Amino acid sequence: MTVTLGVHRSNPTLFHLSRLGYAEEELAALGETARWHAYTDGVRTGALLADGTIDFGGTGSTPPVTAQAAGHDIVYTAISAPRPDHGALLVPEDSPVRTVADLKGGTVHLAIGSWQTHLVAQALDDAGLSYATDITPVRGGADSEAKLRSGEITAWVAQGAELAAARRTGGLRTLVRTGDVISDRSVFFTRRDLAEQRPELVEALVRALRRADAWAAEHPGEAAALAAADQGGAAEDWETALRALPWTIEEVTEEFVAEQQRAADVFHRTGFIDRAVTVADALPRKV
After folding, report:
1. Could you tell me which of 172, 174, 134 has the C-alpha nearest to residue 150?
2. Where is the Solute-binding protein family 3/N-terminal domain (predicted)?
């Protein structure tokens, strides 16, 4: 069997794994082969699993919830340790916005459909506000930082190297630290047929993920150079960002399922997803 692994720029573990050969080695020990499918938008991971384009993928916390809402039968396979400093909701230093409640009526740039939606929706919900009605969420882009600094938008969710670069430049303030609202884990999932019919393949891939994370933890400079060459930005900012990550792959826990369920409930209540989701349905069935 050839197992197709999805890789996109927003998942650092899979990004490194695609370049290190560990997945190929782990699958070869089972007599199987690995193939990589690169795509640009992690939000599409559930759909790509469902139509058979990929067999295994990884994202932040939001895409698996929206995949379930779309009717895709996914199964969680592994999660990263919490990433409390992976991203932040930023405002200008001189902004009158001092609390999340002050975002009401404002425009927030973020990667809609990614973990950033989870962050903003949960922070607003905790403050008694609604993602659907109390802010204007807009998909961020290369000009988001400039628009924030010029006052064209109210806030911006930055992550990784762009967050490190913005902080190095100065003039911005952290309104919400990610770890104060959500755990922001990397999440790895597959289709139910693969999880239940070939569990040994999933176990091999999780071993490969752990090896990739161990490599990144031991070689932050090399990992940063790889990311900068592929995605742009300064290697020093990438190294700052990558050193802030835990580089630990864990089993799916009840705590994680409860947090995902909380996110799913907020998404449904605000209309971000159009039907209720039971996150526990995406766990392996007990035999």
Report:
1. 172
2. 2-219
